[in-house]
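Many introductory courses stop at the sequence. We go one step further.
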Amino acid sequence: MKDEIVKARHRILDDSSDDKLHEECGVFGLWAPPEADDEADEVYRGLLALQHRGQESAGITVGEGGGLRTEKGMGLISQVFSAGDLEEMSGHLGIGHVRYSTAGSSNIANAQPLERHGKLGDIAVAHNGTLVNADVLRSLLEDGGVLFRTEADSEVLLAMIARKAAKGLENAVTEAMSAVKGSYALVMLVGDKLIGARDPHGIRPMVLGKKDNRWYLASESCAIKSVGAETVRDVAPGEVILIDENGPRSIEQDLANDRATCVFEYIYFARPDSRIDGISVMESRLAMGRELAREWNVEADLVCGVPDSGVPAALGFARESGVPYGIGFIKNHYVGRTFIHPDQVMRERAVSVKLTVLIEEVKGKRVILIDDSIVRGTTSRRLVTLMRDAGAKEVLFGVVSPPITYPCYFGIDTPIAEDLIAHAKDVDAIKEILGADWLAYLSLEGLKKALEREKGFCLGCLTGTYPIPPHKLRNGTERAETQGESDECK
């Protein structure tokens, strides 16, 4: 066991990747009356509020009179667009996208929105999620003579809609939705209409908003608030919404299944000021901290959160446990999200630039660190080391999600099961690898209590049980040997 721990610790220190789960994208859509002229600016502001969902590329498409104009580029939304760019983009419809790639390589060709021309006219789509049968569908479409310009599975969806054009817009969209499997929250521009759709399990979030006579669709409610609008409701699982001059209309189809929203939207992905399916993200994180404190009766001098998503949980832990809350880490928000450096010394220096410890706050104290999750263990190990170097007497590590033991194939960038530190190791072994004095995870029951619901979540990465079981997937990349087989989603 000792040799295994040393080897595992060595692998962790040599891992240059950012040790967090990554959400794939954020989408935003707007329908305004024809006389409106600031759509691109509103889409831009909506995307700014969703920047946490993807920092790799950004794009905006505006439409008017059936014509579309798309501008996109690599980098943050503020790097891709200038005020002059937005002024030149006119139209009363708009959709936007921020991307972190899990399907398709990182290049401008795969940046969204994507456009396609067909019998329905010009169509643009922005998509968040992963279509797990995209490879099969792409192959069938290519056999039928369809040419693809990108690796993005979103283009497969566009091609399917274009292929069904003879059946009319609504039938083309609904038939395409019924053919794809996986997770998606997407917005489309077709003619003078804005269309939104959410996958049948509601794995990826989407909300409908309104301001005066304008309508909005977005991945999170924080984006609706950022443009001064109000959230009307969540888009239901399996729902397709069509918005035109008559307002929003739900297109009837029989796709909906039991709701299975990704639980990591609440644990980590979403912004704290968002609400998803009626649950406040901020309140859920506070509650996770409270539940961990109830399960983990431990004495300490200080509790602090790992910025940013660990901070609300740490506050909830402090309030419940009575351990004083303090600020242990200062985060440099002007440093990029990931570091890729050629050797360990450079990587350690990079982490020190991104997060620094307030020595006066932690020196000589028994410190509880609260984080949202542990994936490979890379970051957690470095955080413990930083605390010890700052003079902490003991470092106790608390995690407000249960152990991540299985991969996700619905749009979250996770390593294979064997690379997840909790897949084949117990808590004691993980504690030794991280170098912590104590390690505690929130239980699955505690997580459900914090969310105040027993059902309605995808817990696949925690339990190996998925909304769509692996044996029903046909994309050729199944890992059924490491995943559950049940249709049940608790």
